[in-house]
Design brief:
The protein has about 375 residues and is of the alpha/beta class. It contains 11 helices and 15 strands. A 7-stranded mixed beta sheet has the order 6-5-4-7-10-14-15. α2 packs antiparallel against α5, α4 packs antiparallel against α5 and α5 crosses α6. The chain is globular, with a radius of gyration of 21 Å.
């Protein structure tokens, strides 16, 4: 029996409800329409999995799981071929799946290359590469959930009891883990979720996870952030990051930058959660994915504009370190200016920001130092 790390988590975060390989197909929960409908997209070859990832069937950290399960599916497609043919096929599958979305291709590649190595080892030992890749996928999921549990534990220490947080987009595992950590520490907080157009991940996914975790949650439109901050309703702004560079820049769902600017204006600390990318040194290394503008001009097939009106859809924006109060990782809480030290030590040291520190930031510094 596998010791799974998705216990007591919301529906969206259970392994089978993210992406799952079984009987020569991968089924992926269609997050584009959840929770209006609970529907799964079924993929019968790895290219269909890559297409599903590109088409946003699954989002946030969901594609990591889909990539892993897609590699198991790829192995099943050629399990009767020669060892050489299988390795060549899986190498191509790794490349296609890893590049299904450009901004996070480096992270996807870690998953697919790990699956490829598991397959090579299994073939060398005369074992099933399909089974080896699937087991590797579960091990990878358990590792990721365990790491995010560490992040969630650190993050919840920054959240005062009975305070309110604002989130942007869908932080996937970190949302579930911070809620689980809050329960363990008997800590209560309120959550405000920016809706996150054009896919509304904040409204549909993040709020669902908070609600199922017993958190008092309120959805606001993307243009209400300044209003609720001005009213004093928000104590902390937090988001995950699709990329964290070594020099402290982060890429996250489009709209994160404007929320960070507002948080800075209203002296609200912004805590980014995630793991720094070892292979991205500078903010200029970030590639912003441009998606179909039609997704901005309509929603679920209903046009919002007259024909001929133009739109743009950059999927992410980049927030500079000067707007980030701290980066919360599995090893501890870092200044965005000290992320190099993340790669140098296993200790959970606290580094505060080399920023203009407002009174609220200084209080949080003392609070965190006391807790850690």
């Amino acid at each position: 029996m596998i010791d799974r790390k998705d216990y007591d988590l919301p529906f969206l975060l259970r392994y089978e409800n993210v992406a799952w390989y079984e009987n020569k197909k991968v089924r992926i929960l269609d997050r584009r329409i959840y929770p209006t409908e609970i529907s799964f997209v079924e993929c019968y070859n790895y290219r269909e999995v890559a297409e599903a990832i590109y088409n946003m069937v699954t989002q946030s950290a969901g594609p990591y799981t889909a990539c892993a399960m897609g590699m198991a599916l790829a192995a099943s497609e050629v399990e009767k071929k020669t060892e050489k043919e299988q390795i060549e096929f899986l190498t191509e599958a790794s490349n296609v799946l890893a590049n299904s979305r450009p901004t996070t291709a480096n992270r996807y590649k870690i998953i697919t290359e790990s699956a490829l190595e598991a397959a090579k080892k299994a073939l060398k030992e005369g074992k099933s590469p399909v089974e080896a890749i699937f087991n590797n996928a579960i091990e990878s999921l358990n590792r990721r959930y365990s790491i995010m549990e560490e992040v969630g534990t650190y993050l919840i220490k920054l959240v005062e009891n009975n305070s309110s947080i604002l989130t942007q987009c869908f932080g996937e595992t970190i949302v579930g883990m911070m809620c689980r950590a809050a329960k363990k520490e008997n800590k209560t907080f309120k959550a405000y979720c920016l809706e996150t157009r054009p896919y509304f991940q904040g409204a549909r996914l993040t709020s669902s996870c908070f609600y199922e975790s017993g958190i008092d949650v309120t959805v606001i439109t993307d243009n209400m952030a300044a209003y609720v901050m001005q009213k004093g309703a928000i104590n902390i702004f937090t988001s995950a990051a699709d990329t964290i560079t070594r020099d402290g820049y982060i890429a996250n769902k489009i709209g994160t930058l404007q929320a960070a600017i507002l948080a800075d204006k209203f002296e609200i600390p912004y805590y980014v959660t995630g793991i720094p990318d070892k292979d991205k040194n500078k903010g200029s290394d970030i590639v912003i994915e441009e998606r179909d503008p039609e997704l901005v001009l309509s929603y679920r097939g209903i046009p919002n504009t007259l024909k001929g009106v133009k739109g743009i859809y950059p999927s992410f924006d980049v927030t500079p370190p000067k707007l980030i109060s701290a980066v919360v990782t599995d090893k501890g809480i870092y200044s965005p200016y000290n992320l190099e030290e993340y790669f140098e030590t296993e200790t959970r040291d606290f580094y505060w920001c080399n920023l203009k520190i407002c009174q609220k930031d200084f209080f949080n510094f003392l609070f965190v130092a006391y807790l850690l």
